[in-house]
């Protein structure tokens, strides 16, 4: 069994610039590559993102593909291997199974890469990332970057009890490495 870290995209590894439809709006946090290099020593890495702007006609699907190729290229330039980018392009009202907190992508990754979810992490800046972690019995880490501050009050007591809250991906990485090294 493999352990994994599922990373949200906007507000987690790149700055949240709303519906991104252009490569020039991709801005990595200055700690992103260092964090992922550390995490990949112990975990398979995935990106999991909701991009409803595609269904809404705000994001062109060709541009979305170029954006994801660019992200993978930048990762590869830094020696980081992202196993898959899982992207839901539907709107909430489409009621698909892949939009977070829908578990379809996690279920797929679990089967394809034999992932031990109880020892894996889901990191993101939105309550839907946390709900996904709870539904899949993975460890959730809520970040205060991106939309994290804004949506913090939407987290229920139950959700807050089940997860860790970190200021950003750097602090989340330290939290994870500490937990696996000391078993806390
Ligand atoms: Mg996000
Ligand atoms: Zn979907």
Element layout with pairings:
Layout (H helix, E strand, L loop, with lengths): L3 E4 L24 H8 L4 E7 L10 H17 L4 E7 L15 H10 L7 E4 L2 H10 L2 E5 L4 H4 L5 H6 E4 L2 H14 L2
Parallel strand pairs: 1-2, 1-4, 2-3, 4-5, 5-6
Helix pairs in contact: 1-7
Please, could you describe this protein's structure?
The chain is of the alpha/beta class. It is built from seven helices and six strands, in the order E-H-E-H-E-H-E-H-E-H-H-E-H. The protein has a six-stranded parallel sheet with strand order 3-2-1-4-5-6, sandwiched between helices. Helix 1 links the parallel strand 1 and strand 2. The chain starts with a strand and ends with a helix. Bound molecules: magnesium ion and zinc ion (ZN). The site of zinc ion has 5 residues, from loops.
Strand content: 15-25%
Assign the structural class, choosing from mainly alpha, mainly beta, alpha/beta, alpha+beta, or little secondary structure.
alpha/beta
Q: What compounds sit in this structure?
A: magnesium ion, zinc ion
Strand and helix order: EHEHEHEHEHHEH
Model regions low in confidence, pLDDT < 50 over at least 5 residues: none
What is the subunit organization of this protein?
single chain
Helix content: 25-40%
What spatial order of strands do you see in the largest sheet? Answer: 3-2-1-4-5-6
Gap between N and C termini, in Å? 21 Å
Tally of helical runs? 7
Radius of gyration, in Å, reads: 15 Å
Biggest sheet record = 6 strands, parallel
Number of strands: 6
Average of per-residue pLDDT values: 97
Shape: globular
């Amino acid at each position: 069994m493999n352990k994994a870290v599922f990373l949200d995209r906007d507000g987690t590894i790149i700055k949240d610039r709303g519906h991104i439809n252009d490569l020039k709006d991709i801005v990595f946090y200055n700690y992103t590559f260092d964090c992922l290099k550390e995490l990949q020593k112990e975990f398979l890495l995935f990106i999991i993102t909701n991009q409803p702007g595609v269904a809404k006609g705000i994001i062109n699907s060709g541009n979305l593909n170029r954006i994801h190729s660019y992200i993978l290229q930048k990762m590869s330039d830094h020696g980081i291997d992202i196993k898959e980018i899982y992207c839901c392009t539907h709107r909430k009202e489409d009621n698909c199974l892949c939009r977070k907190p829908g578990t379809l992508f996690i279920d797929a990754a679990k089967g394809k890469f034999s992932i031990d979810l109880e020892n894996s992490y889901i990191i993101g800046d939105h309550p839907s990332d946390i709900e996904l972690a709870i539904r899949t019995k993975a460890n959730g880490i809520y970040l205060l970057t991106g939309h994290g501050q804004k949506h913090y009050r939407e987290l229920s007591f139950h959700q807050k009890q089940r997860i860790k809250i970190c200021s950003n991906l750097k602090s989340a990485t330290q939290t994870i490495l500490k937990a696996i090294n000391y078993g806390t």
